[in-house]
Amino acid sequence: MATFFPHHCSPSVVLPEDLDQSRFTTLKGVRLVHGHHPMCGKFGVHEFTVRRKTFCAGCAGLFVGALAGLSVATLYFVYLRSLPASLGYIGLGFVLLGLLYILFFKAGFTMMRIAINALFVLGFALVLVAVDGVGSLVLDLIVIGLCSYWMFTRIQLSRMSHDIICDGCDEACDKKGV
Description:
Mean pLDDT: 81
Shape: elongated
Strand content: 5-15%
Strand order of the largest sheet: 1-2
Number of helices: 4
Order of helices and strands: EEEEHHHH
Low-confidence stretches: none
Distance between the termini: 29 Å
């Protein structure tokens, strides 16, 4: 949901109906917001442009990761039913990378943000598939709950990081209400 309606997870002073045309697309009467960061130089690597439309690199990565994770889970649950447990550790590494890069890597580039966010969500699927190999529904539900918690934590860390960026900025913008 956050990929297509980021203002639900990342509220700002700018309401979706007041956004610049490059920051949303209307599809069958539904306004899909895809560029939700303040329009200043401080957030340049947080977004990218395709055909004069601005997209959030983090949200795009989460979307790509969700597609990859859905593919992995579908292949596992429909066809394979047996994967090495080491994939769970790789998935956990992807989750940790997705959570920790916000804290430790203040710089970076757009493709790195897309890739790390994609790996973050793919990590959810890998952990779930590995834990499912144990055969415990309770353990599967715990992992699903953990994945929800990890996503919530990721959103909060992102908000905190954005607030720090904005606090150190002297530019007037809609987010600050100036």
